[in-house]
TrEMBL record:
Biological classification of the source: Eukaryota, Metazoa, Chordata, Craniata, Vertebrata
Database matches in PROSITE patterns: B302_SPRY
SUPFAM superfamilies named among the record's database cross-references: Concanavalin A-like lectins/glucanases (SSF49899)
Protein name: B30.2/SPRY domain-containing protein
Top-level taxon of origin: Eukaryota
Native organism: Coilia grayii
Length: 185
């Protein structure tokens, strides 16, 4: 159930900088010289994980410390990656976000929610067969939000979006954290 997620450089928006080990992503100031392929996000500051899943349960954690804007979750393989994208289940994205202090489940329309604290690491748990995507504050095992009754019909991938640097206030990377104990059975 614990999975070793790495970022897929072939899907990364050209403005994103990925670490050599594929565990960190941040927004760069200039566009990287990379080929424009059908797999690559060309507009949104987004990237997928290399590993896809089409059954079972999996869990991974992402450090969001120092970020003021981010989106994290999963996306289906056939999502639109060109031009403006809409992060919502009917477009193949099951995500939550932080946008300048406001947390929301990204749906049509977004569903805002409040948290007692500000998570430094977010855990993402997926039960593909049960149609469940749940998010947790990984530092205290507090449940944040769940998306239920999902009918997955194809392979899904971990999804990450860093947004812009906002003049340096959002320049921290998203970091895929090692997981030693999974809180969900």
């Amino acid at each position: 159930m614990l999975v070793n997620v790495t970022l897929d450089p072939d899907t990364a928006n050209p403005h994103l900088i990925l670490s050599a080990d594929g565990k960190q992503v941040k927004q760069g100031d200039t566009q990287q010289n990379v080929p424009d392929t059908p797999k690559r996000f060309d507009h949104a500051g987004s990237v997928l994980g290399k590993e896809g899943f089409s059954s079972g349960k999996f869990y991974y954690e992402v450090q969001v410390k120092g970020k003021t804007v981010w989106d994290i979750g999963v996306a289906k393989e056939s999502i639109n990656r060109k031009g403006k994208i809409t992060l919502a289940p009917n477009y193949g994205y099951w995500t939550i976000s932080l946008n300048d202090g406001t947390y929301a489940a990204l749906a049509s329309p977004p569903v805002p929610f409040s948290l007692k604290g500000k998570p430094q690491r977010v855990g993402v748990f997926v039960d593909y067969d049960a149609g469940l995507v749940s998010f947790y504050d990984a530092d205290c095992w507090h449940h944040i939000y769940s998306i239920t009754n999902v009918s997955f019909t194809e392979k899904i991938y971990p999804f990450f979006s860093t947004w812009g640097n906002d003049g340096g206030s959002n320049s921290a990377p998203l970091i895929i954290s090692p997981v030693y104990i999974c809180p969900i059975k």
